[in-house]
Amino acid sequence: MAVNRNVVDRALAVLRTLPRVSLYNLKDHEHRKKRSARGQHGGGTHGHGKKFRQNYLPLGFESGNTPFHLRFGMEKYYKRYRLEREYPPVSLLMLQKMIDTNRLDTTQPIDLSSICNSGVYSMNINFNHHGVNLTDEEGFDQFCAKINIEVQWASEGAIAAIERNGGVITTSYYDPLCLHAVTDPARFFLKGDPIPKRMIPPEDAIEYYSSADNRGYLADPEKVSLARLALAQKYGYELPKIEDDPDYTMLTMRKDPRQIFYGLEPGWVVSLKDKAILKPKDKELLEYYRT
Amino acid sequence: MMQNISKLFRNCGHRFLLPKFPMSTLESIESNPLDSELVPPSSSLAKSLNFKRKLESMPPNMEPKQAWLENLNTTDEEKISILELHPQVFGSMPRIDVIHKNVRWQTFYGRMDLHQAASRAELPGGGRKPWPQKGLGRARHGSNRSPLFYNGGKSHGPRAPKSYFYMLPYDLRILGLTTTLSVKLAQDDLHIVESLDIPTDDQQYIEELVQTRMWGPSVLFVDEQDVMPENITKATENIGHFNLMPAYGLNVFSMLKHDTLVLTLAALNRIEHQLLLNIHRNKNGKHQFRYMPSHH
Amino acid sequence: MSLQVLGRTLAYAARRSALSVQPARNASYLGSTVVDPLKKYPDVEVSRDPAEWRFVERLLPMKTVPAPRSTTETLPSGWRPTNPKSLNEPYFIGRSRNHQPSVYLKIKERGFQKFTIVKFITGDIWRLKEDLSKRIEERLGLKHGIHVNEMYGKLVITGDVYNVVMEFYDEKGF
Hints:
Chain A: It comes from Cloeon dipterum. The structure holds 3 protein chains of 3 kinds. Chain A is an alpha/beta fold.
């Protein structure tokens, strides 16, 4: 409530002396009168008169002059815009804030689902957003949480900051169909569809997700541990031993390349109402989902 | 805003809005109001109920609102205890404009106008040219059902169906409820009772009760669930201005239409909990999702 | 969705293309496909294992904003809980719904118009205006116009004085 409490209490006290608020003494604020489009012949309803209904003007119509979207010819630079994937950023400072305010549970692995569920991060699949880009622009020095995090893009500094604190970071790809399930799992479960299996990244992304330097989910784990050492030397911190960590099981939890939810396999149908999971028995289906 | 109420005030009412008890009573309570001394020994229910209400998510700078817990088993009122109410629900700014918006929305969203004036095409006949184009010295016409003709069609009349449906923003509807509850409490039109159990199913009993306690001519009794105790259901059945309502039916229009609002403890808990849930809700998930049934 | 509607989805699973992006297509009753007799659909095993169900519950979001941690220290991100001593001040600056400080920098007109806004103020707002005005003049050497909205408990200070206001805010412990 963005109101001064003194004013609230005073207002409520004034109400005690006034007549009872009823259906017959209500009034809204006065609103500014709508200013219709000016012009004798083009103003108001744009030449269609007041009494006609549903005469919607074409989208983009600018009352006669050549509309903006027709003034310019096609430009080469936006030809492949639908293939340009975008990753709305989350800075390390933002991540630390989410952890500090209990929006994220650090005792569990953090993935795109938990970040979307926190209510602080939003992405729109229709705008070609493919997930989280963890940046080190802000919060590199402040970040001090030990987490197992799975993002879609990460800068080198972000990886260093997480590994420095004894955490684990992985970058993984979700194809658009899986993104609908991952970004809003509650809504997806209500549909009653089987959990989809993740598809491999497109051609221009495979290199990124197979590289150990980016901690890609398709990279060789041995190369990843070498890369961790190399990064520690580069940034000048001692790499903590995860094997000795009491949270070892949590930190080493990883999803299968075909899996989108921890602990749940593709092909399963989750029934929230019955609180049951339905698993296919058919051999063909099982083969399809497990390969 | 305050001036609007006094300007537009028409129904003087038959009484002033005096507090039901002198304010000094609250101030004179030095001891803990939840001490057993306040509880009249005759009220056996009082001993079994827990009066200390836990207020969820209280901001540090806000103090709770207070209201009496009353009884319904005697005609005369017995004040059992003082209850603490959440200030964000019962002490919010009295936004008369928001109340107006809610009442207007409730009035209009179900409205459907079905009246239709026949156009020239819908009337019988009118296909033949009434008289030749030329030669008669009369005005030229093509149909005797044109709007120019007597008994002809109406060119721009009401066209059915016309809907006035619109949805008031969710947060405004929440605000409407909190504002109306605050207004009711501030104007001494809110009473909280343990339950809607009354000793008899006699209509006269409830009428006498309301008369004695100077509750408004119309009373809205709100309980948590939609199955009400038998006695009160029978007693209020033939009285149009005493109405029973479950908590999920609580709305701004009904609260204003009835002069007095009576809540049971269970209803109070439910209403406060639900409103606070929505005031502090986490904005995740897609926009349409909140209208979907919740399974968890 | 209940058990009765499960079957249709499994049969169509194999045919579903990865590029068909139509969210919530069958999310409503009317939009859903009709269920054929269950015999037509492949066999299914129902599991109510609580260990597995915990993974499902993990994916369901919190309905309300979580309560802030019960701590008195400033946390690594800079977030600090309200200090109880701040309640003794003649005024109080509340937190937003997400328990964050309610001091905002508003930039308009392509960067030429800057305002610092303080919201959720209760108590003696005029006193706060004076205190802030003094503090800004101390730090920046210039007087900045402050607009008071007593009704909404809001102060609008012209210019970018965010850091000065935040320093004042943290000092008082709101």
